[in-house]
Amino acid sequence: MQLNMRLALVLGVAVAAFSGCNSKPKDKKTTTTTAPVTSNTTTSNAGVSRLAPPSTTAATSSQAVAFVVRVAALGADPIEFSGLTMSASGSMDESVDIGEVKLVGDDNTNRAYDAGEPDMAVAAAPAFSVDDGSVTLTLATPITIAAGARLQMLVVVEVTGGSGQTLQLDIAAAADVAVNDANGVLVPGGTYPMPGTPITIGNAMPPAADHLLLTEIVWSSGTTTVNGASFIEVHNPTPNSVDISTYYLTDANQSTISGGYQDLPGLPGNGSDLGLANDLFDFVIRFPAGSTLASGATVTVAMDGAGYAAAYGKDADYCLDGQTGTTQQMDVFQYATRTFAPTPPAAGTSVWHWTGEKIALFTWDGASDLVQDVDIVQVEGIIAAGKTDKTGISIDGPDADTAPSTYQADTPAAQQAEIARAGALITQRMDLLETGEVKTAGNGISGNDETSEPLDQTWVTAATATPGTP
After folding, report:
1. What pLDDT is recorded for position 131?
2. What is the reported pTM?
3. DSSP classification of residue 72
4. What b/e string do you get for 334-351 counting C-beta neighbours within 10 Å, with b at 16 or more?
5. Which residue numbers in the chain have pLDDT < 50?
């Protein structure tokens, strides 16, 4: 509903523009750079044209506008637009260096991808299965374009590599624009193939995601075998300092009996144990009050502070147990009282183990109905109950109302990727862009679906730990 309302505003402006003289361009800045578009059919009620993108170099953003397209209702009747197929060419390998591809409503018709402009269709990464392939962007709900109006849209690509390479997107044929009217499918007017503008990928690509990331984990070898060298590393790739006193870590399963971390806003009244069966194997921990993580900085959370200091010759930033030196004790969920306190688990042997487990970094502001995922990783062999799937779960938090909120759909557990185990206890992130992760309609802090990351491609096992270095 929100998408259609926003686009209605754009279309309403377009109707007003069409009511005047159309015999010459209204804005020289938005004229095409190729020959004038002419119809390939004299009877079509729809027309398609393209505009030059705002830049021919994607140098400062991973989100690049590769094509600007207008679809117009030329006759006396409205038309429906339902999708678009784009064909790729250029020196880059799109199957490697392009993540997701989106069709975005250009609300202000400035040909630039601006914050808040609506995603109309998304092809998840990797959008291109082969080099110089094609991608189809299909709207979940077709958009009606009023008679005499036009709809301007952006084809936005997620650039993940290919520095110095070129990318060009084209509409190869009229059939690649899906439009119809009351009488059926239309063949839209326009000149085809309709070539886009080649874009050169620059060197100043953003280094990482727009939220905190898990970047290294040293695991324990079994469910109760404490590895003093074990730690979880958290990195801040964003340009701003982050208050992490509202951030949590857990390795707990999601259980129909004991719940899961998604239940946190409903405590204590919902009686959930946040997925813990006891204090022995699993944990839910929170960074202590006043904790911040500076831009570009990295912190380590040791399972055992003293063991970490012995293994690496320095103190960890935080610990679950064994506080020593400058290491700060994390706030730990106390199984018996369902409260958080800076006290190690009652049993004192909670571990994140290599035999198949997940680590979830999430945040909760203390008031909202729902927690937000920040990053989730899991290793090969994890049981289904260990994975995160909050799909359709509703929680009423401590806010003033009594109406619950419902989590978005997570990636089904059977389809979630795992970090491949290769005999090592050390796993490290090699991709700070989370390439391949679905970036929309998820439970993540940025709207991402953190359960969709292809962990077998973005993480590797390593022979040597590098604590504090993402």
Report:
1. 95
2. 0.62
3. E
4. bbeebebeeebbeeebbb
5. 1-42, 59-60, 204-207
Nearest of 277, 425, 279, 273 to residue 349 by alpha carbon: 279
Is the Cβ–Cβ distance between 280 and 348 less than 8 Å? Answer: no
pLDDT recorded at residue 418: 93
Q: What is the DSSP letter of 168?
A: E
The helix (run of H) or strand (run of E) holding residue 141 is strand 134-145
Per DSSP, the residues of 322-358 read: ---TTPEEPEEEETTTTEEESS--SSS----BTTS-E
Q: Does domain 2-201 have CATH number 2.60.40?
A: yes
Tokens of 268: 């204590």
pLDDT at 399: 87
Q: Give the tens place of pLDDT for each residue, 73-123.
A: 999 999 999 999 999 999 999 988 888 899 999 999 999 988 778 899 999
Cα 53 to its chain centre, rounded Å, is: 24
Of 433, 284, 293, which Cα lies nearest the Cα of 358? 284
Q: What is the pLDDT of residue 21?
A: 31
pLDDT at 423: 66
How large is the greatest C-alpha to C-alpha distance in the chain, in angstroms?
80
pLDDT tens string 136-187: 999 999 999 999 999 999 999 988 778 788 999 999 999 999 999 999 999 9
Which tokens go with 240?
Answer: 């701003």
Q: How far is CA 373 from CA 8, 161, 262, 411, 430, in A?
A: 33, 26, 9, 13, 20
Residue indicated by tokens 């929680």: 395
Closest CA to 252 of 336, 346, 353, 347: 353
Q: Residues of 385-396 as b/e, b for ≥16 C-beta within 10 angstroms?
A: ebbbbbeebebb
Q: Which residue has the tokens 């937000």?
A: 372
Phi and psi for 425 in degrees, rounded to 5?
A: -105, 10
Residue 156 has φ and ψ, to the nearest 5°, of -110, 130
Q: Positive or negative, the Cα torsion across 29, 32, 35, 36?
A: negative
The superfamily CATH assigns to domain 213-462 is Lamin Tail domain (2.60.40.1260)
Strands 298-304 and 318-321: parallel
Domains of the chain, by residue range, sit at 2-201, 213-462
